[in-house]
Structures are given as structure tokens and as C-alpha cells.
Design brief:
Blueprint (H helix, E strand, L loop, with lengths): L12 E5 L9 H12 L3 E4 L14 H13 L5 E4 L23 E4 L4 H10 L5 E2 L15 H9 L19 E4 L7 E5 H7 L12 E5 L5 H13 L2 H4 L2 E4 L6 H4 L7 E4 L6
Parallel strand pairs: 1-2, 1-3, 3-4, 4-5, 6-10, 7-8, 8-9
Antiparallel strand pairs: 9-10
Helix pairs in contact: 5-6
Length: about 270
């Protein structure tokens, strides 16, 4: 049984770390900081969050040190990942998972899937697969007001209830009807597949499996799905759902995608 962290209090302390790649637009960090501080939160950063080491946000030792601090330091209410990209999985052997502090909110997506899966094994904590810190900017192509409102509601004591429907993207397909009630696990399909055979391999037994990915070729999506099928991850789950997976520019004109949901059982558990 996973432990759900306390709700985010008014004026709570949010630790921001960068376990993956550096942000592509440096001002995103300042804009997101302004967004959260205006809401009354205290935003603190890992000391190495601005480092750049090729495609990584600093060397492994520094990124791991920041993540260890954020997950262990007393007084931190929420750990918010600066961004995704690549590199979080490299930190697994460098984290002292026995030295985690009290459960706290951990939020991020994409490459942060590796952190979610590790905390599911070693907390085990309930974590939140949601927008990274650097997504909270003023750019029009970023988060909608509905997504921001849902993000903040997720950290309150009240249940979220039914997920709102996106009026601009009504194309949700039901592959197999039914209903299921179970813990949700998953994340970025590529990272979920890469976890198989590792100490933090995803456990879908009796769970709802959620997968998403971005800008993958159709054959790579097919390969990932068959990897999960052959590994028994769908068979063990109670239900599954997938988010939109836009294809690359080369194949976008001849391929479409839509969110899909599939229930393995017709009754609620």
C-alpha cells in the first residue's frame, strides 16, 4: 500500500530540482517562479538546477544530490521537477532510497516517469504525474486554465472526481467498455518499457496502466506496446488508457492518434 503525502498547505515550500535535461528556454524558470510565488508558495531550488552538461542538467552526481535533498530534507511540502527530457533513470543507483524523508508531493511527467517508478518501489509513495515546473509560463501554447485548476485541486484533501473533458479535443476512444477501480501506474511509454528488468520495474498487477509518449514514429509506438504485452504488463492490469501520441513531422500527414481507454473487466473492484 502506497502512502499518500499530506495536502499542499497555503504558503507551502516547493523544492524545484532538475534530474533530467536543462530547460530549453531559460526564462521559463523565472516565469514559473513568479507564477507560484504570486500564489503565496515558497519556491526553493536545488543548488545545481541551472547546470548544463551536454543534454543533461548537470553531471549525475550533482543532479542526484539535488534530488536526494528534495526527497529527504525536512520541511519540504512538494518536490516539483523543473523539466523532462532525458537522464532521470541514470540517478537510480546514486539515490539512498532508505534515507527518504517524510512523504511529500512529487510531481513531474515525461522523463520523470523513472522517479515515479522508483518511489513506487522504495517509498512506497503516491506521486503525481502532472506538469513540470517549467510549463507554468505565459506562453499561449502551454497549460490551459482548466489544466492549471485541476493541477492545484490534485494537492487538496478533496477527491478529484471525474476528469474534465477537453472541449478542444473530444476524440477519446473506448476500445473496450467496462469500469475498473484500482491504483493508477504508468507514465511515458518509453520509460515504462525501459524499466523492465531493472530494480524499479513497473508493477501493473491489479492496477490501471496509463501510458503516453510524444513525437514517436508509429512503428516505435507499436514496438513499445508489444514490449509491454510480451512482458505481461497489460495482462496483469485491470484496465489501461493512453494519452495522445503525436507522430513525427515525417509521418504526421499519414497517421493520426487519439486518447484510448480499455477496461479488462466489466465490474468495478
Amino acid at each position: 500500500m502506497r502512502t499518500k503525502p499530506p495536502a499542499l498547505p497555503d504558503g507551502g515550500r516547493i523544492a524545484v530540482v532538475a534530474p533530467s535535461s536543462p530547460p530549453q528556454i531559460r526564462s521559463d524558470t523565472e516565469q514559473a517562479t513568479d507564477y507560484f510565488t504570486k500564489l503565496g508558495y515558497e519556491v526553493v531550488f536545488g543548488p545545481h538546477h541551472r547546470e548544463v552538461h551536454g543534454y543533461l542538467a548537470g553531471v549525475d552526481e550533482h543532479r542526484a544530490a539535488d534530488l536526494q535533498w528534495a526527497l529527504s530534507e525536512p520541511g519540504i511540502d512538494m518536490v516539483h521537477m523543473l523539466g523532462g527530457g532525458y537522464g532521470a533513470a541514470r540517478l537510480y543507483p546514486r539515490i539512498d532510497w532508505d534515507a527518504l524523508g517524510d512523504p511529500r508531493i512529487v510531481c513531474g511527467f515525461s522523463d520523470i516517469t523513472a522517479v515515479h517508478l522508483a518511489l513506487a518501489k522504495h517509498g512506497p509513495w503516491t506521486t503525481f504525474y502532472g506538469p513540470n515546473f517549467s510549463r507554468f509560463t505565459r506562453r499561449k501554447d502551454e497549460l490551459t486554465d482548466e489544466t492549471k485548476a485541476w493541477f492545484h485541486r490534485a494537492f487538496t484533501p478533496e477527491p478529484l472526481g471525474r476528469v474534465f473533458e477537453d472541449p478542444e479535443n473530444p476524440y477519446v476512444l473506448t476500445i473496450g467498455g467496462g469500469s475498473a477501480e484500482a491504483p493508477i501506474v504508468g507514465g511515458c511509454m518509453t520509460l515504462v518499457c525501459h524499466s523492465i528488468g531493472t530494480p524499479y520495474e513497473i508493477d501493473t498487477d491489479g492496477c490501471i496502466l496509463m501510458i503516453e509518449d510524444l513525437d514517436e514514429e508509429p512503428y516505435m509506438v507499436d514496438a513499445g506496446l508489444h514490449h509491454l504485452i510480451r512482458a505481461g504488463k497489460f495482462e496483469a492490469s485491470r484496465a489501461s488508457c493512453s494519452a495522445p501520441t503525436p507522430t513525427s513531422r515525417r509521418t504526421r500527414s499519414r497517421s493520426t492518434s487519439a486518447p484510448a481507454c480499455r477496461s479488462r473487466r466489466s465490474s468495478t473492484s
